[in-house]
Amino acid sequence: MGMIQSLQKALDYIEEHLLEQLSVETIAKQANMSEFHFQRIFSILTDIPVGEYLRRRRLTLAAQELSTTTSKVIDIALKYGYDTPESFTKAFRRQHGLTPSQARSNSGKLTSYNRLTIQVNLKGAEPMNYKIVEKGSFKVVGVKREFSCVNGENQVMIPKMWADVHQDGTNDLLFQLNNGQIKGVLGVCVDKRDSESQFMDYWIATDHTGDTPKGLLELEIPASKWGVFEVHGAMPDAMHHAWKQIFSEWFPSSHYEHAGTPDLEVYSNGNPSNPEYYSEIWIPLK
Questions:
Q1: C-alpha pair distances (Å), 39 with each of 142, 149, 189
Q2: Model's pTM, two decimal places?
Q3: Which fold has domain 130-285?
């Protein structure tokens, strides 16, 4: 089963079990992915975390039920996963801009988030420059932090980590230590599938041969066949666009799958706000 078909299977499962206590781990199993990779691909393709999609769909259905039935507000709140009318009203107002009672009396506009269907753009109108390379295992040195993948926390905290390493001089140090084959400073996402699956390690590191300098950690990147994709443009938009194009266009039209080991974002030593800035995405393939 291809990646897009697997994701659609997971989306169908969500709709079939929307009124149940759903965990991302259970949903990811429907796509035959780890929780980490499912959440990452889902957020790249849809621009929202899995948990936010669940919330939006439930509140969309709750609004429809309020406006078309006479069921009590407390019963609808419980049905869609809210323990109290107060918590339901707060979430309902945040999405729809009005209270459940106002929705019942049809005194305002509702915001509907329809069921997602994964569609793939195979037009290929925008060219992608990439190459396939074989590379043995290698060591990177740098700093790491653990982030939760729940509700997109990692997407918020990783940019703050980058701000910290620029401010404290770590970014400059890593460029100085960069003496391996991959030129630049790396962002490395590591799936912690062998421990608590809702967490990931994120590394800011560099390809380095020799002893690990004091104060830094080292990570072994396994040997792999890599898809190396060029990224041109200012950060972070160019990188985000490239990831979306890779998962929505390149993977569905290729015979490769993600190997499940860490992938790399490679940042060159330049001004990341420059529209001509060059970076790369390295994806392990199987």
A1: 25, 7, 13
A2: 0.87
A3: Multidrug-efflux Transporter 1 Regulator Bmrr; Chain A (3.20.80)
